[in-house]
Write a structure and sequence with these properties.
nine-stranded mixed sheet, 2 domains, alpha/beta, Rossmann fold, 10 helices, 17 strands
Length: 358
């Protein structure tokens, strides 16, 4: 009998756990859905002054409850998509997340989305969503450099400001945004530039889109690049994306890496090249062999800031390669995966246009 009662309580608990978390509604406020994925913002450490912690330990309900006055900004509904450190973010989760965002924003009831995420791959998730979300409504990503249990945790204020931006009419039509450390950044331009300080995220090529100071939102300019409703990419009916690998450039880099990756199943290659997307002679020849086989090779750079020239020290037309323009290697990989999914036999010239366009 006790076992049956326990099982009944367990079933009820599971049912309630699957229901999205929400609070009392104010018809005068916008409805913002918070999709939680884990990360440092939901992490816990053994000590408030220590650097060791485990990501993705706090559920969305507890995160919202930890932010004073956040419900004065918007009617909030919380959903736990996954609960992982962003180093474990995957294409599968991206597709699930994008489909859920598109489903929610297609309704009249939802006015915007906030996504809690880890910082390590936040710029990649933001850029992916920027290319496949099909709505003008605000989509805002927030994160934290310190755990929820750390001294001077930055997550609560980042979440508060993220909800404020998502609830702002000014955020409409600006694509996917990242709100962290009081600034608003576009998915195209945002980069994690520092490993652990709270000011880790910057937009060195185009600058911040605006600021969010304790809920006061101000935009300075528009985001760069085509995005969301104007993007030609979609994940409707897509379960996976083609494999694209990244080769990291360095002095005396191994010249067989491209051949090995293609043999392992890569359908495209990104070079995180030295300087202006450069690589040694052996790797250049391997890139040329790959492009002749119809495997796209895109030259990005390991340098944090700056664009890769189409006709610099490496002339792309001579090797069949493509310049990533100002996209860093990890974002270039996402664009190439989506391009290969949509266009089965895309020409080098057309692929180059995509990297300039997005």
């Amino acid at each position: 009998m006790k076992k049956q009662i326990f099982n009944s309580f367990l079933i009820i608990a599971l049912i309630f756990a699957s229901i999205p978390f929400s609070t009392a509604q104010d018809k005068d406020l916008p409805h913002i859905v918070i999709l939680a994925t884990g990360g440092t913002i939901a992490g816990q450490g053994a000590s408030a002054t220590g650097s060791s912690y485990t990501a993705g330990q706090i559920g969305i309900e507890s995160m919202i409850d930890a932010v004073p006055n956040i419900r004065k900004l918007a009617n909030l509904t919380g959903e736990q998509t996954v609960n992982v450190g962003s180093q474990d973010m995957s294409v599968d989760v991206w597709i699930t997340l994008a489909n859920r965002i598109n489903e929610l924003l297609a309704t009249d009831d939802v006015d915007g989305i906030v996504i809690t995420h880890g910082t390590d791959t936040q710029e990649e998730t933001a850029f992916f969503l920027n290319l496949v979300v099909k709505s003008d409504k605000p989509v805002v990503m927030v994160a934290a450099m310190r755990t929820s249990t750390a001294l001077s945790a930055d997550g609560p204020l980042n979440l508060y400001n993220g909800v404020a931006v998502a609830a702002s009419p000014e955020a409409t039509g600006k694509g996917v945004l990242v709100v962290i450390n009081d600034v608003i950044l576009s998915a195209h331009s945002v980069k994690k530039m520092l490993t652990t300080p709270v000011q880790a995220f910057m937009a060195p090529e185009h600058g911040y889109l605006g600021t969010a100071n304790f809920g006061l939102v101000e935009f300075f300019h528009e985001p760069h690049g085509v995005h969301t409703v104007n993007s030609e990419f979609s994940i409707d009916g897509i379960k996976k994306l083609p494999r694209v690998d990244i080769v990291y450039g360095c002095a005396d880099m191994s010249t067989d890496l491209i051949d090995i990756m293609i043999k392992a199943g890569a359908k495209g290659i990104i070079i995180a090249g030295v300087g202006d997307g450069n690589m040694n002679k052996g790797t250049l020849e391997a890139a040329k062999r790959a492009t002749k086989k119809g495997i796209p090779v895109v030259r990005a750079t390991r340098v944090p800031v700056g664009a890769v020239l189409i006709e610099g020290e490496v002339v792309d037309a001579d090797y069949g390669t493509v310049s990533a323009d100002e996209l860093n290697p990890q974002k270039a990989r996402i664009l190439l995966m989506l391009a290969l999914q949509k266009y089965k036999n895309i020409s080098r010239e057309d692929l180059q246009e995509l990297f300039i366009k997005y």
